[in-house]
Amino acid sequence: MATPVVVTKKRREELLESPQFPFTERDLPIWAQDGDIPEALKEYHLRAWGLFQTIPMPSLTDEAWRRTDIRGLKASELTLYPVLQKRSLRPPRDLLKPLVGKKHGGQVVLVPAHAATVSVDEEWQKKGVIFTDLKTARKHHAEFLLSTLGQIVRPEEGKFAALAAAFAEDGVVLYIPSGVRLKAPLHSVIWSPGVRLARFTRLLIWLDDDSELTFVHEMASPDQGEGQSFHAGIVEIHVGKGAHLTFVEMQSWGRDVWNFTHERARVERDGTLDWIFGSVGSQLTKTFMEIDLIGEGATGKMSGFYFTDGDQHLDHDTQQNHLAPHTTSDLLFKGALQDRSRSVWQGMIYVAPGAQKTDGYQANRNLTLSPYARADSIPGLEIMANDVRCTHGATVGKIDEEQLFYLLSRGISRNEAIRLIVEGFFEPIMERVPYGGVRQRFRTAIKQKIE
Amino acid sequence: MSELRIVNLHVNVNGREILKGVNLTIHKGEIHALMGPNGTGKSTLAYTLMGHPSYEVTEGEVWYKGQNILELEADQRAHLGLFLAFQYPVAIPGVSVANFLRAAINARRRIANPEDKGIPIPEFRKELKKVMDLLKVDHSFASRYLNDGFSGGEKKRAEIIQMAMLKPEIAIMDETDSGLDIDALRIVSEGVNALRGPNLGVLIITHYQRILNYIKPDYVHIMMDGRIVESGGPDLALHLEEHGYDWLKNKIEMTF
Ligand SMILES: Nc1ncnc2c1ncn2[C@@H]1O[C@H](COP(=O)(O)OP(=O)(O)OP(=O)(O)O)[C@@H](O)[C@H]1O
Ligand SMILES: [Mg+2]
């Protein structure tokens, strides 16, 4: 008779293994013989691959990953070349619609394993604007790419930063020359159908001094209902002196997606960044978002909302770095949670020594719509200068029964009342969104969650 | 059968009996005033009629349109034509007065006709402007967040704006007059009077004779310790104004 094995809770946890990706050096996207890839870029990919192999897989013992367990990711089943259904390749029409005004100044649409669709106003091209996909940029703007790509987010920063740096050849590249102010917004869409697909993307936004741009970036995929898929991405943003960027980012990945991104914006003297962020999709997301205010008078504003349901787990890790005097940052993240879903927001305001007269603000507000949902909210300050103003706040609350009764007493149904209260809760974020079309998209996403 | 009939209503709050057998019938077209000292259960009656979940009915019935409405949810009671103007209206941050009212009107329309597409926006705007003019509030009121940062007087006007937009058949007004200055009291009263008619029954809960000078009641009732202890015509309110509640004390004791 065999000795019975007692499986304690601890033992069971140990049985969960950390994810193992099946990829090898041969899978790196640098072996094509067509000469389109500059040598320096190949080296960059190889270096990132080397780092990926040496950096340990994040685990619950790492401070930044304490609340986000990734052992459920079946990385070994992922593929770079999924079977693609032709009709799944076209993004839903809503995603392609101009979100600001009647017309885009340009649009880039990326689907897996196919050439990007790129359109950009000729007038802007003549002024030196680059707005294209990464592969095209590699071919036609190699010099620009080599002097910019990988400067702001480095592969050393984490396992998934290294992985994305090693594998991403898909992406969007955007350059606005000095003094150019784009009136019409640019729009890009990353659409990712494909069961068990591992997708890697990069986004590079580079604004030279005194330029101006509004850019809307969407990442989405269908709910495929089988297998797990994966996205790792890098977003790098440079806002030059006196430049102004409004950056709207929306992730509505399908429920099969495990999503990991490293995003950082660097803002120079008197530059302003208005970063607006919506997060509703994916099974699990871990996003690092940072603003580095590196020149005097730089301003960074971050406004984000997330809305989770089912057993979604969204983790947003934000950092506002005041690295020069007279810099201003302002962060507001609001989240609503249904069912057994979970959110984590971990925010830090860092003020470097000598960064006097800075003004930093962060607030995170959560509304749990189910007793089983859980929102963790962890604000943080690290202040190395003495003449600064930094404030923060974090709250987690439930739907107020008195509000609910008030609305019901007017004949509004319970579901509709909850929808109104939730919409009202998110309204302070919507007020920070400068465009009706984007607000509408965000509102639709919220509505769909409640229904 | 379009009267509201409250029969032997007993209500507990947090396990304590607050209403101890209330009987009251309100026909459409009638205005009833309900008066009584603080804490005797007037708001409890109002909330219970509207279906607030904290109020536990232990005995009795409330009949309206052939149904015991105590079995209905608050929104269903509203669909039947009940309305409560709250003593303390609740703020809903981020939801504008206009959006909220449109949602409330459309909810009703969909009950009447599931195919309904909702009230056309121009019609809604026109109606709302008319009502805001009646209550003498600026049109910018429509885009303010519901009761959020409203002054006491603005909240009370907002309640009557809602009443005018939703056109109830039985309206319970819980101390709509308190917190209003003299001019506002007149404006709000005129607003209510404009809605008066054979299809509206009203229960006005108040501490003061003053509002009853503007909105003439058909009946006045006095509640003490969870029961209606005295009913009469408009004169009863005048009598109270002069003599207070002391002369009724023995009435309560008699009922023990
Ligand atoms: N939600 C509640 N929770 C706890 N106690 C309550 C609640 N509602 C009413 N009560 C209690 O029930 C009693 C009656 O209160 P109610 O508000 O009905 O009185 P009222 O007659 O409206 O008084 P007022 O004239 O001061 O408005 C009071 O003792 C009050 O404290
Ligand atoms: Mg009261």
In words, what does this structure look like?
The complex is a heterodimer of chains A (451) and B (256). Chain A has 451 residues and is an alpha/beta fold. Chain A has one domain. Helices cover 21% and strands 36% of the residues of chain A. In chain A, a hairpin with a 6-residue loop joins β1 (106-110) and β2. In chain A, α2 runs antiparallel to α7 and α9 (414-430) runs antiparallel to α10. Chain B is an alpha/beta fold and 256 residues long. Chain B has a domain at 3-91 and 168-255: Rossmann fold (3-Layer(aba) Sandwich). Chain B is 38% helix and 25% strand. In chain B, strands 6-7-8-3-9-10 form a six-stranded mixed beta sheet, sandwiched between helices. A four-stranded antiparallel beta sheet of chain B has the order 2-1-4-5. In chain B, α5 runs parallel beside α6 (182-195). The chains are: A alpha/beta (451), B alpha/beta (256). The site of adenosine-5'-triphosphate (ATP) has 13 residues of chain B, from α1. Residues 13-14, 18, 36, 38-44, 54, 87 of chain B line the site of adenosine-5'-triphosphate.
Topology:
The complex is a heterodimer of chains A (about 450) and B (about 260).
Chain A: H1 9-15, H2 39-54, H3 93-96, E1 106-110, E2 117-120, H4 122-126, E3 130-133, H5 134-140, H6 142-148, H7 159-167, E4 170-176, E5 186-191, E6 198-207, E7 212-220, E8 229-239, E9 244-252, E10 257-267, E11 272-279, E12 284-293, E13 299-308, E14 313-322, E15 328-337, E16 342-351, E17 359-368, E18 374-383, E19 389-398, H8 401-408, H9 414-430, H10 436-450
Parallel strand pairs in A: 1-5, 4-6, 5-7, 6-8, 7-9, 8-10, 9-11, 10-12, 11-13, 12-14, 13-15, 14-16, 15-17, 16-18, 17-19
Antiparallel strand pairs in A: 1-2, 3-4
Chain B: E1 4-13, E2 16-26, E3 31-35, H1 42-50, E4 55-64, E5 67-68, H2 74-80, E6 82-85, H3 97-112, H4 121-134, H5 152-166, E7 170-174, H6 182-195, E8 201-205, H7 210-214, E9 219-224, E10 227-232, H8 235-243, H9 249-255
Parallel strand pairs in B: 3-8, 3-9, 6-7, 7-8
Antiparallel strand pairs in B: 1-2, 1-4, 4-5, 9-10
Helix pairs in contact in B: 3-5, 5-6
Bound molecules: adenosine-5'-triphosphate and magnesium ion.
Magnesium ion binds near residues 42, 87, 174 and 175 of chain B.
